[in-house]
Amino acid sequence: MLGRLDMYSEHIPNLDLFISMHIMKEATQSSKIEGTQTNMEEALLSKEDVPLDKRDDWMEVHNYINAMNEAIKMLEDLPFSSRLIRNVHKVLLSGVRGEHKQPGEFRKSQNWIGGLSINDAIFVPPVCTSIPELMEDIEKFVHNEQIFFPELLKIALIHYQFETIHPFLDGNGRTGRLLITLYLVSKGILKRPILYLSDYLEKHRNTYYSNMMKVRLENDIETWFKFFLHGIIDTAEKGVETFQKILSLQKEYEECIKALGSRSANALKVITELYKHPMIDATGVSEITGLGTVSSYKLIKELERLEMLKEMTGSKRGRIYVLEKYIRIFD
Fold it and tell me: How far apart are CA 32 and CA 52, in angstroms?
């Protein structure tokens, strides 16, 4: 399934247009596991258009997007390492809840998982003084070529171990989930970051946590491995399905645009840009096409008539339009 998914990274044109949406979906789902409630439409808004009471959630999602993009760039010069992990964590916690909890630094105090205090915690991670050694152990395991261990089981074990160490005061879950994709790219299993497990882990959240606890309390690594591998299969299958739907929608839109005659060239410019960021206003249409305001609104009206664009604010001013069918594929 990973091979089938990876194939799309070679054969789909304009893959970058689609990867940004995959990362945005991953960001919203990963943050949802942490209790952040931002949907795809809200995540696509600019910061100024987000209600004040939702801006923290919006920032957490966008930090996740920035962290993924930054980490992929870092992999060009930096191996999968503690340094890379700390850099990712620093971006994740920049300017959001947790920004005062040592972003980019391993914790210097004890933390715990579940419960109001350490006394009624579900699980207490290792003491802070042992973290550098334990993270170094993960790093050695990543780069150990003397002992053969299948790469998918390797990242399953790394993810479990990272979450068990819980090396940061905050943001361990988001960082640990992001590392799965980074590892697969760093090992060349995926050419591009197109596999994201957060949707699967969110849907099976209780099983996810309980299977990790079974390893800690009962030494049951096999059940965790099976759960993780099933998640890889399920996610890769859905990824292939998503790409197939996107290609089908592209063809549908291209056929519709042909019917616009003299407006078809500008319509294609707008729709192509919307694959990357499927939300726009009249000003955005003007910037992409060079059309004046009146002509931009006429083009928008045509795209609404063809059921490509849909207005989402319901207001008469400051109207924002979304490429609705495209968003629904990811949502």
Answer: 19
Angle between helices 55-74 and 82-92 (to 10 degrees): 150
Burial class (CB in 10 A: 0-12, 13-18, 19+), 323: buried
Residues 6+ apart with CB under 8 A from 331: 25, 39, 40
Contacts of 199 (CB under 8 A, 6+ apart): 25, 26, 29, 235, 238
Contacts of residue 235, defined as CB under 8 A and 6 or more positions apart, other chains included, come to: 195, 196, 197, 199, 200
Nearest CA to 178 out of 37, 101, 75 is that of: 75
The DSSP letter of residue 262 is G
Q: What is the pTM of this model?
A: 0.84
pLDDT digits (tens, 9 = 90+) for 199-241: 899 899 999 999 999 999 999 999 999 999 999 999 999 989 9
Q: What letter would DSSP give residue 95?
A: T
Q: What is the CA radius of gyration of the chain?
A: 22
Q: What is the DSSP letter of 109?
A: S
Looking at residue 122, the DSSP 8-state letter turns out to be S
Q: Are 276 and 326 spatial neighbours (Cβ–Cβ below 8 Å)?
A: no
Identify any residues that bridge with 311 across adjacent strands, giving them in sequence order.
321
Beta bridge partners of 77: none
* Residue 149 near residue 136, CB atoms below 8 Å: no
Q: What element of type H or E holds 293?
A: helix 293-305
